[in-house]
Amino acid sequence: MEMYIVLAVAVFMMAMFVWHKVPFGLTTMTCCIILTLTGVIDVETAFSGFGNKIVVLVAPMLALGAVLGKTSMVGKIRGVMETMKGKRGYLMVLTLFFFTALLAQFIPSTAVMAIMVVFAAQIGDNGDITPTRVILPMLGVASCFKFRFPVSAGAANFATINALYEGIITDQAYHLTMLEPFIFCIIPMVMVGIFCIFGWKLMPKSEGSLNQDAVNAKTQESVMTPGQEKVVYIVFILAMVIMITNVGGMLYLAPAIAVALLIWTGILDAKEASKLMTSDTIWMMAGVLVVSDALGSSGASEAIGNLLLNAVGENPNSFMIMLLFAAVTVIMTNFLSNAATQTVIVPLAASLALAGGWDPRGLVLIAGIANMADVALPSGSGEAAVAFAAGGYNPAKVLRFTLPYMAVSILGYAISAQLLYPLYG
């Protein structure tokens, strides 16, 4: 009976993620309460996710990333972009794409697109390169490179994905380490980057008209003194070094130390830090950890995995399974939010790998990272909405670019997963 209760709760959670009419955190906390009321778990276990080392790492990383985004670094990048006004050809395209990828490591992609459409508007409508021909490819770059390098929020990618399946697959040998998501992304980033550099020409010249309201949007300027910025950079770099080297086993504690230092030095307001570290992302993650543990301990995840295994057959081709999960993830994320796609597909991938006795890392990395390939529809994410609004695009008329982009993404993620983590490795 316990297994069926957990399965019902998991289905409810996934359905609510897809529906997305209430915050994700409310959904997962409701699931924890249901599991407690039905006697599947006790009260202490229901809220144990908040003390999980993954949440301890991710929560302060959100605050640390927000502080970094308030420095003059973004403004300096904008200054460099200003010097590119009037330049034509591939130099302009490469510059736009480079700074899109760079900014995407430090600030949310929605803000990145809001900033970059301003620069794209400076190109002008004359000639082969026009704003509406590069804004959507810029979205493609932002989506592929979004927090991919192990800095800022990207340093917590491994923990975020681990949180979604560590209760299903308890063997730590199959849990991700800090650098693995970045290494996994190298091949897709190269493939998608090259495609965007040349593929922008697939964008129709006449499609869309620049939305001046989006172009005229203001971006936040730094409110820090030069001394405060230096402290932020030093603290941030030290935190990243500690996380990468895991000095003293402080990988999971380094972001918290950094945030505490910024609060004590008066750079980060305590109330703001508290708000950032108790965002919906944290509530969702804490709840998902508990539900994931319940799936594993009740045998529900094994049942799900066996069902999926029966569907794909015994000893299926490893690369074809990678392609299947990559395709499902990329297609799904264009209709749903990135987070909803990730939280639905990762547990399914882990359950299938558990049932098949496979290495789960390739599948969970596909599900946990390919969920950012959201360029086909404005419903895919906030940054997609910004790009489509700014460019005035009709989704049907830009399929010449978006469909090949999705195909390249699917292939890139599948190849990377197969090379690094084959199912039968």
TrEMBL record:
Record-annotated Citrate transporter-like domain positions: 14-368
Keywords: Membrane, Repeat, Transmembrane, Transmembrane helix, Transport
Main location: membrane
Pfam families, A to Z: CitMHS (PF03600)
Coiled coil: none
GO cellular component: plasma membrane
Membrane spanning residue stretches: 7-38, 50-69, 90-123, 181-200, 231-247, 282-299, 319-336, 403-424
Gene Ontology process terms (BP): transmembrane transport
Subcellular location: Membrane
Keyword Membrane part of the UniProt annotation: yes
Membrane-topology descriptor: Multi-pass membrane protein
Protein name per the record: Anion permease
Lineage per the UniProt record: Bacteria, Bacillati, Bacillota, Clostridia, Eubacteriales
